[in-house]
Amino acid sequence: MPGRDGFQIAQDLKRRGSRARIVFLSMHEADEFVAQAFQSGGLGYVLKTRVHTDLVNGVKRVLAGQLSVPSLKSLFVINDHPAGHAVQFYAEHEAWVEGVSSFLNTALRRGDAVAVVLPGPVRASLAKRLKSSGWSVGESGTHGPYRAVDTVDAVSGSMRDGCLDVGRVAEMVAELDRFRVATRGPQSRLTVVGDIAGQLFLSGYSAAGLQLERVWSDLTCNLPFLTACCYSETCFSEGTHTDLFPHLCEGHYAVAHSPDDGVRPLRN
Predict the structure, then answer these.
(1) Which residues have C-beta within 8 Å of that of residue 144, sequence separation ≥ 6?
(2) Quick one: which of 154, 187, 196, 243 has the fewest CB in 10 Å?
């Protein structure tokens, strides 16, 4: 494209009323490139270093009407006030924790209240990283605008007789909203990162996991919540639950894939 770049071409298509859904393929990871891509009319952004896992998935998500983003942090870059229900799939644990830490650090700096519902080792790693960035946080409990909850406790509290307790989920949402208002004020936002549904999948309660995703979307759709549900790709290993993967993606407005360390792409 002599004399033109992808951003300009995308803008041209948009001005001409094109109905094409644009996915950018780029070598640049910097926030300003991601922001410009979506401002130009893009709906997806795939890094060339991850093309073998992310490109096909990214195109499928965009064709399904969702955003395909290179990281959770990208949601803040492309929207000043992101809200809704997003999902991230990951294979390499350390890279994922580092990405979540960056995401939460950005949320706290923007003035959000933050809640994490994750296993103990992950909460400990996040607390260590966030403390190094100057935040007073802990591995569990409430620390100012930061709340950390154990996934096992959340799972046991949301299930009754092997079924999802919708009433308890509604109570969880109400508790988080009160926490948001109490710590950051009524005009604030809440950023949530959790893996409750993923743990339900791993425990053999896939139907309850899908139901939780739907119920959570319904309960939070009118609240200033940005929820990121995180799934280890082990939830879908060796063919397990792969038939549910497309339905899982469809329940979220944005889908992110973290670095995969050479793992084969999911078939969605």
Answers:
(1) 136, 137, 183
(2) 187
What integer pLDDT is reported at residue 29 of this predicted model? 86
CATH of the domain at 63: 3.40.50.2300
- In a shared domain, residues 58 and 35: yes
pTM listed for this prediction: 0.89
Q: What average pLDDT score do residues 88-107 get?
A: 93
pLDDT confidence of residue 56? 87
C-beta of residue 216 within 8 angstroms of C-beta of residue 85: yes
When divided into structural domains, the chain yields a total of 2
Contact call for residues 42 and 24 (beta carbons, < 8 A): yes
Q: 93-109 vs 120-132: helix axis angle to the nearest 10?
A: 50
Output the six-digit token pair for 94. 């350390």
Q: What are the residues whose beta carbons fall under 8 Å from the beta carbon of 170, sequence distance 6 or more?
A: 215, 219
pLDDT at residue 8 in the model: 86
Q: Which domain holds residue 14?
A: 1-70
Do the beta carbons of residue 226 and residue 191 sit within 8 Å? yes
Confidence of residue 264 (pLDDT cuts 50, 70, 90): very low
Best CA proximity match to 199, nearest among 151, 165, 157, 140: 151
Structure tokens at 86: 């997003």
Ranges 39-48, 137-146, 200-209, 243-252: which has the least confidence: 243-252
User: What share of the chain in percent tops pLDDT 70?
Assistant: 92
Which amino acid, 127? Answer: A
Alpha helices in the chain (DSSP H): 6-15, 31-39, 51-63, 74-78, 93-109, 120-132, 151-158, 166-184, 196-202, 206-220, 245-250
Terminal C-alpha separation, the chain: 32
Do residue 20 and residue 110 come from a single domain?
no
